[in-house]
Structure formats: structure tokens, C-alpha cells
Amino acid sequence: MMNPIFHALFQKSRYLTNCLNEVLKQHQLYSSQWTILYCLHKNGPMTLTQIWKYLNVEAPSITRAITRLETLGWVQRLDGEDKREKIVTLSAQAEERLPAITATIIAFEEEMVGSLTVEEQHQFIKLLEKMKG
Amino acid sequence: MMNPIFHALFQKSRYLTNCLNEVLKQHQLYSSQWTILYCLHKNGPMTLTQIWKYLNVEAPSITRAITRLETLGWVQRLDGEDKREKIVTLSAQAEERLPAITATIIAFEEEMVGSLTVEEQHQFIKLLEKMKG
DNA sequence: AGTAATTATTTAGCTAGGTAAATAAATTTC
DNA sequence: GAAATTTATTTACCTAGCTAAATAATTACT
What we know:
The first copy, chain A, is mainly alpha-helical. Chain A has a domain at about 25-105: Arc Repressor Mutant, subunit A. Helices cover about 70% and strands about 10% of the residues of chain A. The first copy, chain A, has a 3-stranded antiparallel β-sheet. In chain A, strand 2 and strand 3 form a beta hairpin. At the A-B interface, helix 1, helix 5 and helix 6 of A face helix 1, helix 5 and helix 6 of B. Chain A binds a DNA duplex through helix 1, helix 2 and helix 4.
């Protein structure tokens, strides 16, 4: 890329994802799986559509991730009143393990972003949002 | 993620990649293919190892991408003096088409990043680099 | 009420990243 | 100089995004 912003941004994004996956290995989770678990923890049971709209991802990515999380015992898929929709809920196992995982994540984020002051963190987000899109 | 920086960063990264792919459709290229072509244009012929080290990705990603670029006629793989290594060069077709693609990219980048002042762009990169890693 | 349009989810198949392990050539070591 | 180590590339297989199209259930239309 000619403008160094893009290369820097893409690279940091990949780097952070890899680090996050590394750190989450101890809980046998991938970063995107964690993202979904956290989303459910924060919002309670959600339909697939609610999840992908919330996370700003396309539906098939969520279908696949939920299928995996289900077979691994982290979530359940229940039929909704509207028979088209599936409602996803955290399993007891997930609820039980979530605090430890959350602690891992908080430590990770603190390590990664701790070199920035709170001021700089706000500045960073502001700049991200000021970019088109 | 609990710290909004990560979500914002990952999301913008995904968004920009998608936009870039969209814009590159007119040249029948994907963003990561473009990245490699530009890398070769800037540095001249390179071995696979030089490419993946330069782009900061793992070797298999580059092997795959180069194979595809080769079958599409954008690059050639030549044996090096060291018989282990393959030297990748741009094809005549690529050299010919690169100016038009570059123009597309410059316009894209200007559109995406134009809402930031030059000052802010520097600030942004500085903050990215200040984050750990 | 019956047909058409919309909505939720899934399936199939693509790019693009990653790790682990295989292979082949070059280099180092003894 | 033979054996061991290193290096460059590839292969196989995983996650994770995407689009396009299929399916099934609901809603809207007339």
C-alpha cells in the first residue's frame, strides 16, 4: 500500500488477533469464539441475527462459529417462538468458566494497550471513527 | 472485548479490506494479491522468503498466493542460484497494468483517509506503533 | 384464503490468515 | 567427506471472514 496507515493497521490487527489466540489457548478458545461468548454474556440469549448484527459480521460466519461452540459445549441453540429463528444461550459450563477467561482478557488488553494513556486511547478511537466508513 | 479499542480496530480493518476488495474487482484482483504485486514492483524480483518476511505473514500464505498469481499470469517463479529458493518476478502483463491499478489504489486511500489531516494521520500511526508489538 | 415478498438460518465455495510437518538443498560440524 | 543441522519451499489442515444461493417460516397484499 502506498499510504502506510493501511499496512500498519492491517498488520496490527493481525498481530493482535494472533496474540489473543495465543493467550486464549489456555482456555481452549479462539478469539472469535470468545467474542461471541462475551456478546452473549453481556446481552443474554440472542438470535443468530442479533449476534451477527451486533458483531458486524455476516450471518454464515456466525452459523459456523455457533455450530462449533455448540459441539464444544459452550452454548445451546433453542427454537424461538418464531420458528425461523434459533436462540443461542450460554451453557452452564460457559457461565462457570467465563470469569477466569474474562480475567485473562483483561490482563491481555491491559498489556497490549497499557502503553497508551487513557487520553491516547480516546484519541485513537476518535481517529479510527473519523476515517471513512 | 471489554476495551473498545480492539473491537473498533478489528472492525475497521475488516471493513477496509472489504472495501479494497470491492474497488479492486475492476482489475480482477484481491487486496492481498495487490499487496504482493506492489511489493514486487517496489523491490524488484524477490524470493518467497523475502516476500513473507517483508509483508510479515507466514510462508504458506505466500506460497498459495503466488501460485494463484502465477496461474493468473501476474508473476513468474524462477529457480534461484540456490536451488532451494524460487525467485518471483512480475510478468509483462503485470508491469503493463500496474499503473492503472496504482491509480485506483491511490484514489481509494485518499477517499478512506482523506477525512484525516496529515497531522492526524501521523498521530494515528504513532499511536498504532506505541501499542505493544 | 392464497399468492407474493420478506426474513432467519443454513449450505457451498471462495480468499486469507495461522501452525505443524514434509521435502529438498545448502551449510556446519566433527 | 559423512552426518547433522539449518534454510526455503511446499503440503495438509485449521479458523475466520466473505458472497451467492437454498430452505423454511412469517408477513403482506389483494
